[in-house]
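FORM 7B: Structural annotation worksheet

SECTION A. Query
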Amino acid sequence: AALGQRLRGRYSSKVMAVVFAGAALPPLALAGFFAWDGTLGNSSAWPIVGVTLGASLVAACLTTMALVHLLRPVLLTARALRDYVGTGARPSLPTGWTDEVGTLMADTARILAQLDGVLDELAHYDSSTGLPNRHRLLQLVAEQAKAGAPFALCVLAQHNHGRVVAAFGQPTAVAVMRTLGQALAATLGHGAPVATIGPNQLAFILSGCDPAVQPVLAALPPEVAADGAVVLPELAIGMAHFPTDGDAPE
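SECTION B. Predicted structure
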């Protein structure tokens, strides 16, 4: 706390200040001894003090050079954390060292990677159904539109969602939407993501100018068992074609 109040620079500067303060102690102690002993004025005392001072300064410089390199892992870790907080950039810290500062870098890199995955899940996936959310769907639509090939954005709505909530509660209604989303994803297969865009709405993308949507609806289960209740979902679908109906994701 005392160094932080008096030296407001980098942490490495505080370490260097301590090193030089420690290096100044031997010649000061020697000079104090000669002064106390009354021999400081002798011609032989000053060379001893000078040699001690020079050796202390050389030792301090060499120690400082070594400390600059020894402090680099700490400074790299601090910079990596600051960059991640500021810009979200993933750090490229070395993970092969096994001493304390090496494990600090490795643990920082691993924890930030895990945190990045959690933040990505929170930003792009719906927590109730586990499916991509509206934000992620808009990204996928933009990527598909950038490719230039025609496609259709389809929205599947469960019209009796409100009645399911009223009769069985919100958890059962969420379980029904989760089951429908899983069934829809299984029907469409790999490469055709299903997204949750509302409490009773799912969305997906079909390629082609006039994709067949009826087989997709026919493959969905006519009834869904969830939390001990059997629900007959009333489903309807809407479609918007790219580029005839619009060229913006929204």
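SECTION C. Observations
The two ends are 53 Å apart (CA to CA). The chain has eight helices and six strands.

SECTION D. Sign-off
Analyst initials: ____
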